[in-house]
Amino acid sequence: MERFIENYQNKEFDLLVIGGGITGATVAYEAASRGLSVALIEKNDFGSATSSATSRMIHGGLRYLSTFEFGLVRESLRERRILSNIAPNFIHPVPFIFSMYKKDKVSAQAMKLGMILYELFSFDKNWLKDKSKKMPHYETISAQKVKELVPIAVKNGLVGGQLYYDCSSHSPERFTLAFIKSAIKYGASVTNYTEMLDFLVEKQGKIRNVKGVAVLDKISGKKSEIRSKLVINCAGPWADLVLDKVKKQNGKQELRRSEGIHIVTKKILDNFIFSGSTEKGKHFFLVPYRNKTLIGTTDKEYVGKPDEYKVTKTAILELINDVNKALGQGELINYQDVIYTYGGLRPLVEDQTEDVYHSSRKYEITGEKKNGIAGLITVEGGKFTTSRMLAESAINKAFRILKYPKKTSISEKEFLLNSEIDDFAKFLQVKKEQYPIFTSRQIEFLSKSYGNELDRMLEISAENPNLAEILNEDGETLAQVVYAIRYEMAKNLPDIMLRRTGLALLGNPGKEIIEKIANIAAKELSWEPEKVQAEIQKMEAILKIPE
Question: What would the pLDDT profile of 456-472 be if each residue is shown by its tens digit?
Fold first, then answer.
């Protein structure tokens, strides 16, 4: 991977994508794989905002049945299957237990009906290339069985539960990167740390034709103009601010933003993702995650500048309070148990609901001709699970605007780059036999992270045994740091520790490990001592729990 902006020679592209989260990544891949010349720019790092602030699930959206969004549920379940097929190292079936209580706003009978509908909408869930990932049918279980499987569930008022399967996403950060790499495979030019400054506009009567964008390379400080026949705005929570640069509405905010935070705590659960509900009927999940528990998410309207967003102590305490109340255990989780926290903003496409929790997660793809602007598409809303379908729809629209002969999408059928694995269970077994010096857990974690890149990554530690040092329980090593810099466009410690690896996703790994990683990065990226210290301080600040 190389940042094309460093050697850009004024090429005009068919399509320029603003935003390198999951939406921009899938749009770039969809366009490039259908033969369009594509550029993608991201002002920070790929997947560094909303796309890395997920509950690490790929799911149909069971709760959307209560708002009668049957089309969204069906599309999500279909896409869950497709993503399982094209990215088998990232997407895996996991068991969920949805508890049912007498006090719930949704009755046990309604939940049973919902599960029947969910099962019907997922009729094709086992049309999988990899038969080892077959998903069982749902099962209504007794209150006693719920307590047996999830001991922390409150017994008082418990009438039973629904045991069903959805999917987890091993690493949304690397999954986003996989779409970026797949786009590059088909010729896309991509760059991170490249900020869009303004649109290039040519006036034609009352119409303003967008012809590209002016950008700033935040690493070199150099400004450039990138020309394209069409621009797609995939800036997520920043989409309206990007549009403002051409609509000139002086910062008038049109997009609603929802805050979602997560916390990672000591281990509470073993095998099942457990869903509870707050007093107001909002659901949260307790997710077994790397021998810890991931808890989230919140859904609260955020008013303010998205660049200034950060997780607050108040938001963490509200989540802890909701979970403890719902589980009837005041001290099940306390603030001192939080070892890591992260959050992000979701763009919403409607404003008719008072509470953003009940706002739709549908997406919209709009041209801007109504505003007298040509050559620009904006994509808003959506969710991780439906990002591929969103991209397919967006590129269908792009072909119509460009008046190019339509080409059929291949993204539904083709493996993502380095995910070409027909049977993941067999793949794991082969790798465990190939690398007997590694633990089973280490091989499984790294195989999920790297897929068919695993051998190439491990060659680095074979050439330099010092880089084989294991840094955490999952078996991550210093070799991954080198790999992230040399082959995956990582430019700083957060890129390395939060998005190319999981080295900091369970909280601060300790000053010694951070310094080891920083010293390796310094050699690879030619950092001066002052830069090394600045990077260490930046990483420690990110990992600090709000006080």
Answer: 999 999 999 999 999 99
